[in-house]
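help with this.
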Amino acid sequence: MTTPPIIELTSRARDIFRLVVEGYLTTGVPVGSRTLAGGSGLNLSPASIRSVLADLERLGLLAAPHTSAGRMPTESGLRLFVDGMMQVAEPTREERAAIQSRLSEPGPIEAALEATSTILSDLSACAGVVMVPQREPRLRQLSLMSIGDRRVLAVMVGEDGAIENRIIELSAAVPPGALEEASNYITAHLNGRTLPEAARAMQADIASGQNALNAASRDLIERGIAIWSEDAARRPILIVRGQANLLDEGALSDLERVRSLLDDLENKQSVSELLAMARDARSARIFIGSENRLFALSGSSVIAAPYRDREGRVVGVVGVIGPTRLNYARVVPMVDFTARSLGQTLSKFI
């Protein structure tokens, strides 16, 4: 059934529909005609309200759960409400301060991304998600330290101050002199370059024989390049925080839905592909329930917004995942504000 435009509803139907949706989003409980007649200001009898509710149900905008005489919005009804009736509320001063405070804390870019996911989860009582920008950090220094006969710890320092560690397994032990030689050589080649750029330069240099490295140092460097590249390719592209928020009382009563939801969240590649659909949006996009295939079975909604670098280029997406019974009017502008704040924070990194 095609969802009718909001303008095709009578004024009475629009008022009742809005009250049902707002009541359900606030309480999570289907709204009945007696509730609407009692304190809504409609000045209609329960019988008149029931007649309108029945019409809205026939239009596919409301549904009546078999356990209740009240009505709740369908996914089509929620979409109609979000697109045509919702009055968004800007984040409160306290919410804006909390977001900006968390994002202004010193640290590498990864800390800002994790803080974004956490603060969105805390404020929305949903799962907060951040799609990591597709970037290659520029490196400043690398140190190699022996941690065993055939194991070496590589410590890489980026220009943004981020520090990453790699453990390299060697085919044979190397003398301390080889570690120092390899460290100096790699630092000289990677300074100011991304890892792929440094790797290509070193591989070309080694292949041409234009260096005086001994065999142990060459083996260490070439093995290290392969491991670093493989590790970077496996780096998670999504940060998710607050999954436990999704296990509300309603979810726990439906174990199959819980299982489906957790399986969906484990598939980070698919979640990232869903979030990527918001990259071209000017503001937050809303995906309600079965509108996206990923969360169709678990009946979850996603609100996502792109964030940009100092040049205005989209570098990632932030958002929340929660039940379809979300306070959309509050969460949508919160996601938008967080995306803008994160972009401003990351301008000093990318």
About this structure: The two ends are 47 Å apart (CA to CA). Strands lie at 62-63, 72-73, 127-131, 139-148, 151-158, 163-169, 238-241, 285-288, 300-308, 314-323. The first strand starts at residue 62 and ends at 63.
